[in-house]
Write a structure and sequence with these properties.
Order of helices and strands: HHHHHHHHHHHHHH
Shape: globular
Structural class: mainly alpha
Oligomer: single chain
Helix content: over 70%
Number of strands: 0
Number of helices: 14
């Protein structure tokens, strides 16, 4: 049934659906890990620290949940399951890891779904967030890189994690001294996930020529990224709460400085520092370290820069 749906959408895409392909190719961009991470970071620095913390925490948790499910189920991508499936080339480049559940759908649920379930927003704006989440998820089956169950479970699990994250942060307001306990539990879970992904057996199916269809350990790379991200978030979050405690109640000029400076620093890390580290530290260790640096910069290092820079202006 799922393959039949993909073949139908593929026929439409290759026939009269060119305009939809272009539109949904842009929508799938909202499910990219770096896009969601940057947008959540900008909210955290410039708009609302509380909302940004919620989005970054929930997104980090979603990445771990996605990573665990992917390496547990080990579902092959649609084009591996059925040679009739020919995915959109551009979308295929971002289709890393196993297929189930959809990481892009969980990312969109972390951002748009996470905002949609916050009741302080107006109904019209919340409806827009739901639509954006749905279009991002649908784009993955329209472009042929996921099955319907991949996106449905991904979106549903993503919203559930954001709901639980909101409840956790609400509870933390009444128990502020429990933040270290939360961080320790989260880090222990991340370590357990890393060990599980590294040691578990993976399927070893071969094609007619005797070539391995999917390298399981290579597919687990996204899981190790999640471990780096959530570890950095939890450590940076505690350090920021205890040592920096910056605020987003600032002037428009300060917000602009934060936006420009934050993005420049993020791209310096992502495009220069991390590639150098990745070439120096091979394997899963390099993946964890580079993702750790990305998130640690957003949650702690740039807030330190903000605090120092704005203190000098006073």
């Amino acid at each position: 049934m799922d393959i039949s749906i993909l073949i139908f959408l593929q026929s439409f895409r290759e026939g009269i659906g060119a305009i939809f392909t272009e539109f949904l190719s842009k929508m799938t961009w909202f499910g990219e890990m770096n896009v969601v991470l940057i947008l959540a970071g900008l909210i955290y620095w410039c708009v609302s620290k509380e909302t940004g913390t919620y989005l970054l925490m929930g997104w980090s948790g979603n990445r771990v949940v996605n990573g665990v499910l992917k390496v547990s189920v080990c579902a092959y991508r649609p084009w591996i399951r059925d040679a009739r499936i020919i995915p959109d080339v551009a979308a295929m480049e971002s289709a890393t890891g196993y297929s189930f559940p959809s990481g892009h759908s969980m990312n969109a649920a972390s951002l748009f779904g996470g905002l949609a379930i916050k009741r302080e927003y107006r109904p019209g704006l919340r409806a827009l967030f739901w639509i954006l989440m749905g279009l991002t998820a649908f784009s993955r089956i329209f472009l042929g890189v996921h099955t319907p169950q991949d996106i449905l479970v991904g979106a549903g699990a993503g919203v559930l994690v954001m709901f639980l994250t909101g409840k956790l942060l609400k509870w933390l307001k009444d128990h502020p001294d429990k933040d270290i306990m939360i961080a320790v539990i989260g880090i222990l879970i991340a370590v357990a996930v890393a060990i599980f992904a590294a040691l578990k057996p993976y399927p070893t199916d071969y094609d007619a020529e005797g070539k391995l269809l999917v390298d399981g350990l290579k597919m687990a790379n996204d899981t190790f990224k999640a471990v780096g991200w959530i570890g950095a978030f939890l450590i940076g979050w505690i350090l920021e709460r205890r040592l920096i405690n910056f605020t987003t109640e600032v002037t428009v000029q300060q917000r602009v400085f934060r936006l420009v400076g934050g993005l420049l620093g993020y791209y310096l890390i992502s495009l220069i520092i991390n590639p150098l580290l990745k070439s120096a530290v091979a394997g899963f260790a390099g993946t964890v370290i580079t993702c750790f640096i990305q998130m640690f910069y957003i949650v702690f290092l740039f807030p330190v820069i903000i605090k120092l820079a704005e203190r000098k202006k006073e």
